[in-house]
């Protein structure tokens, strides 16, 4: 049961059940679809980006998916809201290192706050794509690549 | 050999599943500190030691290229390869072993039939009929073929319990139908389709039938002559044999007039720099050095299955399936997908409030391997309005205890996720 709780931490289960920043965003000026055909995880991220400063003023997401993908999307919105594009890229890199187990230090992981609950994902390589789907969609939208959908397949 | 009378099954000794499990080395391993419970047999089946040994022995004692040298080993390898073709032929009761083409698997077989049989014979407005429960490998080749020929794809609907709508099927197979592609048994719903009836309908309209037997052969005695199909294809790795080998059966009159699929060595009769003539069937369809060791392994798997008896395997699995259905239905929130009375031992399901991927991971932590996702059948997922399902697909080496472990895991998943 410990390994199970390691992956499905209470925070993840909570965000899966009650996702934060969930729904559409009227003020959004960037949108992106994230789709994992293999899993059936399918979500949309809506971003409101200040065009002059590149700061992410607001973000919401909607869609359906597994607990890992949904909780990750929810926690992501909390982590990146109000941040600059450069800051967000830094958070993403640390998060990505955390879930893939391919680099990063404990000190890095301590700086990403609640996102650290996804450390268990690295034991399940097939689930990394679930944990990163919303992030890839968000980064793509932030990079102004607003056409089409991203996939982590 | 495979079409033994039912009375033989009744007289046969009880199916000794523990002894059978001893033949499969991998079943003894642990996964994540638990005994492996392998319930992903529809994706690929495990291999008995005899198959692994046969492949090793081939490489250690007989390896050589076939149909080429006059030397001893080449003759040995050629004999082993053609003997394997004979084994496959007998296993599905093909009239002649020359009607069996060795290929990589079911997917390649569908592509071969689409390219070499159907494509030159299709006109604009002709129709190909498939069903809503097909695996992508029995959809995409036909879809592409329609796109390049101007033929029209018609789809037989699936009922709520997961059977083909035969009334619709009868209407869909019409004057313009040239080919019907249907799965013998659904890889998601488990449903065994009325292939004989479909063949009769198709033949009455002058159409031919391609049967995807990937999920048929591992569970049922298959007799292509009784089924009346024109083509029947399956993959070795789902039949307890190695990956990379499969077979296509075809009626001789059709195979004989079909163009080659790939061109190159082995499949020619004579070559000049200006032109080439092609070899007879089945060699015409086996360009290049084939998967000789794969064929040897597949023949060994068939020998193993014949030793157990496909009728006894089917009888054991039927009981196991019934037990699985009953036990899964006792779990709150579990919805079975595919409840036809006529099924192979494949159980797909959803669990209320739990995404299949989370279920798959939680079961994996208990050492239980199931498939989750769209099962290469996205149109079928849409049909049932779900993005994905979980699937436990059972083989004859699975046990009631393993189903109990699955159920315990599912209860745990529900507890964690809801």
Written description of the protein model:
The complex is a heterodimer of chains A (153) and B (418). By secondary structure, chain A is an alpha+beta fold. Chain A has helices spanning 2-7, 10-17, 67-80, 85-100, 106-110, 128-142, and strands at residues 30-36, 41-50, 55-64, 149-150. Chain A has six helices and four strands. Helix content of chain B is 40%, strand content 17%. Chain B has 15 helices and 17 strands. In chain B, helix 6 links the parallel strand 5 (127-131) and strand 6. Residues 1-10 of chain B have low confidence and may be disordered. Chain A binds chain B through residues 3-4, 7-8, 13, 16, 37-42, 64-68, 124, 127, 130, and chain B through 32, 354-358, 361-362, 364-365, 372-374, 378, 381, 386-388, 412, 416-417.
Task: Give a short overview.
The complex is a heterodimer of chains A (153) and B (418). Chain A has helices at 2-7, 10-17, 67-80, 85-100, 106-110, 128-142, and strands spanning 30-36, 41-50, 55-64, 149-150.
List the helices and strands and how they pair.
The complex is a heterodimer of chains A (153) and B (418).
Chain A lengths: L1 H6 L2 H8 L12 E7 L4 E10 L4 E10 L2 H14 L4 H16 L5 H5 L17 H15 L6 E2 L3
Parallel strand pairs in A: 1-4
Antiparallel strand pairs in A: 1-2, 2-3
Helix pairs in contact in A: 2-3, 3-6, 4-6
Chain B lengths: L5 H6 L5 H6 L7 E2 L2 E2 L1 E2 L10 H14 L9 H20 L8 E4 L2 H13 L8 E5 L8 H10 L2 E5 L9 H7 L4 E7 L11 H10 L3 E5 L11 H4 L3 E5 L10 E5 L1 H6 L10 E4 L4 E3 L13 H17 L1 H20 L4 E4 L8 E6 L4 H10 L2 E2 L1 E3 L4 H6 L5 E5 L6 H18 L1
Parallel strand pairs in B: 3-15, 5-6, 5-7, 7-8, 8-9
Antiparallel strand pairs in B: 1-2, 4-10, 9-10, 11-12, 13-14, 14-17, 16-17
Helix pairs in contact in B: 3-11, 4-11, 12-15, 13-15
Shape of chain B: globular
Q: Greatest contact pair?
A: A-B, 20 and 21 residues
List segments of chain B where confidence is low: pLDDT < 50 over at least 5 consecutive residues: 1-10
Q: Tell me the span between the first and last alpha carbons of chain B.
A: 51 Å
Number of strands of chain B: 17
What pattern of helices and strands is seen along the backbone of chain A?
A: HHEEEHHHHE
Give me the Rg of chain A, rounded: 14 Å
Q: What portion of the residues of chain A fall into strands of 2 or more residues?
A: 15-25%
How can the largest sheet of chain A be summarized?
4 strands, mixed
User: Helix segment count of chain B?
Assistant: 15
- Determine the fraction of residues in helical runs of chain A and give it as a percent range: 40-55%
Please indicate the percent range of residues of chain B in DSSP E strands (runs of 2 or more): 15-25%
Strand order in the sheet with the most strands of chain B: 4-10-9-8-7-5-6
Overall pLDDT score of chain B: 95
The neighbouring-strand order within the major sheet of chain A is 3-2-1-4
Helix content of chain B: 25-40%
Give Rg of chain B in angstroms: 22 Å
Distance between the termini of chain A: 29 Å
Shape of chain A: globular
Q: What would you call the structural class of chain A?
A: alpha+beta
Q: How many alpha or pi helices of chain A?
A: 6
């Amino acid at each position: 049961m410990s390994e199970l709780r390691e992956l499905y931490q209470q925070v993840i289960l909570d965000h899966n059940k009650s996702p934060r920043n969930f729904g559409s965003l009227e003020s959004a000026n960037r949108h992106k679809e994230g789709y994992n055909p293999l899993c059936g995880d399918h979500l949309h991220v809506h971003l409101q980006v200040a065009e002059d400063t590149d700061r992410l003023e607001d973000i919401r997401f909607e869609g359906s998916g597994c607990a890992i993908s949904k909780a990750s999307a929810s926690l992501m919105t909390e982590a990146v809201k109000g941040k600059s594009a450069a800051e967000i890229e830094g958070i993403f890199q640390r998060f990505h290192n955390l879930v893939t187990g391919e680099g990063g230090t404990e000190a890095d992981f301590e700086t990403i706050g609640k996102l650290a609950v996804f450390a268990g994902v690295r034991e399940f390589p097939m689930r990394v794509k679930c944990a990163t789907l919303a992030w890839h969609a968000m980064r793509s939208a932030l990079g102004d690549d607003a056409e089409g959908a991203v996939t982590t397949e | 050999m495979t079409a033994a009378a039912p009375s033989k099954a009744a007289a046969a000794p009880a199916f000794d599943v523990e002894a059978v499990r001893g033949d499969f080395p991998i079943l003894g391993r642990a996964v994540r500190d638990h005994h492996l419970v392998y319930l992903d047999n529809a994706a690929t089946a495990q291999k008995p030691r005899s198959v692994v040994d046969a492949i090793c022995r081939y490489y250690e004692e007989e390896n050589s290229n076939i149909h080429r040298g006059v030397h001893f080993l080449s003759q040995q390898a050629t004999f082993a390869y053609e003997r394997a073709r004979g084994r496959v032929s007998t296993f599905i009761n093909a009239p002649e072993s020359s009607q069996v083409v060795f290929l990589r698997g079911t997917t390649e077989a569908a592509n071969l039939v689409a390219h070499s049989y159907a494509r030159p014979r299709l006109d604009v407005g002709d129709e190909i009929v498939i069903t809503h429960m097909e695996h992508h490998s029995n959809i995409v080749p036909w879809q592409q073929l329609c796109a390049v020929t101007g033929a029209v794809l018609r789809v037989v609907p699936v009922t709520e319990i997961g059977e083909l709508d035969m009334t619709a099927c009868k209407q869909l197979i019409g004057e313009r139908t040239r080919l019907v592609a249907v799965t013998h048994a659904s890889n998601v719903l488990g449903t065994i389709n009325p292939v004989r009836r479909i063949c009769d309908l198709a033949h009455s309209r002058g159409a031919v039938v391609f049967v995807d037997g990937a999920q048929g052969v591992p569970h049922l005695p298959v007799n292509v002559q009784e089924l009346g199909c024109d083509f029947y294809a399956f993959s070795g790795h789902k039949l307890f044999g190695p990956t990379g080998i499969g077979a296509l059966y075809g009626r001789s009159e059709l195979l004989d007039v079909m163009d080659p699929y790939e061109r190159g060595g082995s499949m020619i009769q004579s070559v000049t720099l200006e032109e080439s003539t092609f070899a007879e069937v089945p060699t015409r369809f086996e360009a290049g050095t084939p998967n000789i060791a794969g064929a040897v392994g597949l023949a060994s798997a068939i020998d193993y299955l014949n030793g157990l008896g496909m009728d006894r395997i089917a009888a054991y699995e039927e009981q196991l399936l019934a037990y699985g259905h009953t036990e899964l239905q006792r779990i709150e929130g579990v919805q079975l997908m595919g409840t036809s009375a006529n099924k192979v031992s494949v159980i797909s399901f959803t669990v209320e409030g739990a995404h299949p991927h989370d279920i798959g991971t939680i079961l994996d932590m208990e050492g239980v391997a199931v498939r989750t996702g769209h099962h290469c059948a996205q149109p079928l997922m849409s049909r049932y309005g779900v993005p994905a399902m979980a699937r436990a697909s059972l083989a004859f080496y699975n046990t009631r205890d393993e189903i109990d472990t699955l159920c315990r895991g599912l209860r745990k998943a529900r507890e964690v996720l809801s």
